[in-house]
Sequence to fold (151 residues):
Amino acid sequence: MVINKMRIDQTLLEQRKIKVCPVVTRTTDEGREILVFRHPLAGIQLVKGTLEKEEELADAAKRELFEESGLELQSQPTFLQCWHSEHDNQVWYFFDCNIEVAAERWAHFTQDGGGHHFQFFWHPMQSPPSKDWHPVFQRALKELRNWFSVE
Fold:
């Protein structure tokens, strides 16, 4: 199957192993920061979710950003890269989401997993993740730091 001119492995799609990760960053006087959240059961994470059958990757990124953070992206996100996460045979598609976010912190209630309050905040990209980060998201942050050339 081809989605957004990218070949998607149909088996992985059917197994719900294709993930989209809408990436929101901002630049401050201290450098680039990335939007993350604290999951009440699973540590610090990036927004990420499953590509649904017949859904476009970019549309899935917009949907996941809204469902998990409450942020509504008006423009199409820009594809950054595909990453084989080495976690549960998942393949992640990162999208740059250009959106203005004034808040430093906020909470959002999501229906995911039966309903959770996610606590959103900005993480300096040059700072390594703490032990509070879920291990797969530690690796994802490292991948994004390389992509954005953040040391």
